[in-house]
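Hi again,

Forgot to attach this to my earlier email, sorry! This is the prediction with uridine-5'-diphosphate bound. I've pasted everything inline since the attachment limit keeps bouncing my files.
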Amino acid sequence: MRSVNVGRKFLADYQSIILKDLLAEIKELAAPLEGRRVLHVNATSFGGGVAEILYTLLPLMNDVGLQAEWQVMTAEREFFDVTKSFHNGLQGAPVELTDEVRSVYEDINRRNAAQLTSDYDFVVIHDPQPCAMRTFVADGGREASWIWRCHIDTSTPDQALYDYLLPFIRRYDRAIYTVAGYAPDGLGVPLEVVPPAIDPLAPKNMTLVPDDAHYIVRQFGIDVDRPLLLQVSRFDPWKDPLGVVDAYRAVKQRWPGVQLALIGSMASDDPEGWDYLEKLTAYVGGDPDVFVLSNLDNIGSVEVNAFQSHAAVVMQKSTREGFGLTVSEGLWKARPVVAGDVGGIPLQIEDGVTGFLVDSSAACAQRCLEILDRPEWAHAMARKGKEHVREHFLTPRLLRDYLRIFNGLLADRA
Ligand code: UDP
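Structure tokens for the complex follow:
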């Protein structure tokens, strides 16, 4: 296991952004938790939504008086091949659950669990990669309350895989899912429904004036006088980047000047990403108005922010999506968002009110055209989307929900 340094953040800085009652509620819930030790464990400190959330949530937990730590599993590539197949399997793809697969999964969980030597009050395990650690942890760890936090849409999983994972999940004291319908019947663990959130003060989301956004995106070859369609996502089939290219091509027939940027980070626990990037590049076929960019091209948080702040349309054309932080990120920048009508996305977008929900590339193209044709109307909709995000999907609300769960677990123990 490897510790991640999360730096510092201060809840007071959020005062002017969030609703006033929330701050008071957080303080009240934090008081009985003063000094309590919390460990979060996941599989990567870079790329993807979970890392994004933990970099904000942990410093805020520390700021309100807890002692929060983050550790990342250490493992070889074959483990991440197995856990990516689990991730896909929980989203509905068939999984080959051989003896070898089980043994890779369990051995690495056992090895990482053996490194958990400190005492904690709460251990939060994110996603399937470290899920079995609770089963294998030595006696010390048993003092803690254990929470399984599943970020994935597991409503239609490969059943054999779920049957294999369920005994590991049942060892937990609580389960947190983004949407109630993601949890299987007979989960056997008290369920909490908590959607994730974005940090409005992170470099990814802080306000950029249009000139600064222009200055940054121009450095990547974008013509700021022509409209830009954008999708920011891991290069993953469920995010449907090829469908995004199809939608862009359809839009281009009527708006020849339109450009498309596909930005994807290469997460260390996502070995499929490299192959998919190659496939996507071939599909784009050298179109000079399509920009496929990643952290390997020096795209970091500020650059993502600039692209999201500048885009005429933010797309998230997923065919499965646990939540989709990129949707809230786009809305927070008051950009018109067109996204797949799946998973956690409808929590964020009310179709035709705060953005658009689509279920095909043709529908996606159609909505993009409407937005390009009527920008003022589209921006009015996006501003409503921003207020929806303010109310429901900013990190202080997520902090509040965790504090409430921790208090509940303390009450169970008393
Ligand atoms: N992201 C990024 N750079 C990229 C691609 C993604 O910073 O090139 C970020 C994105 O802004 C978002 C997170 O990674 O904050 C992805 O979270 P989401 O919930 O959308 O999807 P996940 O990867 O967890 O399936």
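The domain at 210-392 is CATH 3.40.50.2000 (Rossmann fold). The chain is about 45% helix and 15% strand.

That should be everything now.

G.
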